[in-house]
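Contributing new records

If you add data, match the layout below exactly. Sequence lines come first and carry their own label; structure lines follow with theirs. Keep one chain per record. Anything else will be rejected by the validation script.
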Amino acid sequence: MLTLSGVFAVNRHLQPARPLNVLLLEQARDVARDFRLSRRRSRVVEVNGLEMTTAERTDLADFLADLEPEQWQVNSLCEGWRVRDVVAHIMSFDDLNLLDMLRRAVEARFTDINQVGVDELASLDTGQLLDRLRAHLRPTGLATTFGGRLALLDVTIHHQDIRRPLRKPRQIPAERLRCVLHDALLSPELPGRRLARGVRLKPTDLDWSHGSGPEVAGPAEAVLMAITGRASALQELHGAGVSVVARRLGR
């Protein structure tokens, strides 16, 4: 599962020598630094993350509006979460500030902060969840972190976590997909950097590539899902690097 909470995660087995709020802010600062440095080194153009996130959430809301009630109950690619749970998660960081995040972390005993956010919306029916998403198309609160880039990463991947089990493929706009592929290799909570180490990612339908070594080729969306830990996407890819990624995923 992908979430903004990883930016603020604290190892619950450690006894911090400094106040918890200081640790949270330091971790956020470190991740921001990584994003800034990477943008200087990469060919990815500066994008308006908030605008692209708004467009992606709008696309998701339009898709959800056509689902049958039983489709909201289908298991997503996120273990333990149905479609409706993923939708709840996508909005779970809007309107929050750091103190709200700290409250959730305490409630979750610094383990599954994501689930706390989903549980807070468990009483809503699917119509209410969709209405809430429509009301939060443009990110707010912590979802605006790093100019909305983390929220874009979150909603794009989770949109596919919903669509794939429902067998409802789509064409992700190239600019969004290029941005998300780039950022998936930076997120401290995603396995992208580890999985892609020593291989060359070479989508066959997008002007983007990364790395060097044995090649991982195929649809850009499948590349994205594979490097974010969705092992089922590997069957859509080819090249000598696929076995490297599969081995790292334990397959």
